[in-house]
Amino acid sequence: MATRSYVACALCQRAVVVKLMSRGMSAAAHPQSQVDFLKGELHRKHPGVTNLKTLCLPDVLQVAAQSIIHRAEVNRLTDRAHSFTNFLWSRKRAVEDSTLRQKAVGLEKELWEKAMEKRGDLDEQALEDRIKRKVVSELRRTTYHWTPMKYDEELGVVYMAARLAGGYAAVRRALNEIKKRDPSFAPQSLLDFGSGLGTVVWASHSYWGDTLKEMVCVDSSGPMNILAERLLKGDDERAEPHIKQVYFRQFLPVSPKVQFDLVTAAFTLSELQNAKDREEAVMTLWRKTSSYLVLVENGTKEGHQMLMKARDSLLKKQEKTVHDPRPASVFAPCPHELTCPKLAREPFTPCNFQQQYKPLPLPGHNDQQREKFSYLIVSRTEPARADAEGVDWARLTAPVQRRTRHVHCRMCCPDGKLQHLVVTARKHGRDVYRCARNSDWGDQVPIIQKADEDIQTDSE
After folding, report:
1. Dihedral sign of CA atoms 49, 166, 275, 351 in order
2. What is the tens place of the pLDDT at every residue in 8-22?
3. CB count, 10 Å around CB of 422?
4. Residue 89, by phi and psi: left (phi above 0), alpha (psi -120 to 50) or beta?
């Protein structure tokens, strides 16, 4: 019996030695060490991880929201909240006048050609009137009818029930990109355009509450500003606001020379009527940006396309009067400043991400939900580059598929291409493999491109 135990122990020791030798050989074959890109962190907390665990609203915010909703006594609140969420998610941009005119001309030409083919006795004036009426009728039937949102107190409460927790989760996740990758950033001023219920203030305060001294919330809706103030005061008019130095305005500050460390616009571009208004708003916000501009939209095709238009304007548009000469640099999520590769693919799928959160505890709400969103962060300073030569960081654009001894990563790379990389410890090194295995959709992963056969253009 003792002999068997001795033999088993010897075999275990030999297995451990073989395992350590294989690790050593792998490390020798792939000399990139933890010092290169891990910066002393564990693999599950490597520098590219920016995803957050399930988010909850701050307790004081949740209690205030429940109090406001309870006192409002809105009929069929659960059904209306679900319907309103679906409406906002499916909302499209207004059709541009130039597009509408082009469509009308094409339709009119098509109808005239069909009329000419009949070659009968034609009353041209009557035919022209009939074609015009048909063109107008067809355009009304097929054109998306965009209308601006007008919030009163009741609709504001419905919006609170539907979107408060989800909007907060999306903004927290986007801002975490700055918090994680630029830990020295300590903003003292914040400008939130289209502030709504003030979710950006709460999300920003959770990261930089010790340094933020001035927070300006701009929203054209008076009722929404009132609701945001009630949330800050815990739905008690006589109480002091939970977060101090928050100021509400209905218009942007006039002076172009006044800048803020952090400027945000969450779910706001979609509320502007046309491309010209959106571009002017983005450029105005950029002029007021001292460090970071953060834009967040729904994770739909419309949301992604609006953000890419904003990105193009910020990177390419030349302003006549320049108050801050520092150029725009894309901080996140794009690892490059080339044209978004997803826009060129058919069928077009948006670049979006998701964040799990706990919604307000109201009837009909699940315990946990996922917020799907798109975002763009632009910086006044050059983005930090990888310290290690030969190491690039790519953005995961889909869930990581973990398999036995290998991981499937679909990502957007610094060369501006979408790639599908199969990562293994043997071919890419233990550190890269474990980082990839501990990453998820929306994180960044280190890539050391040595095994060309494992890299392919993602055409799925």
Report:
1. positive
2. 455 455 544 444 444
3. 18
4. alpha
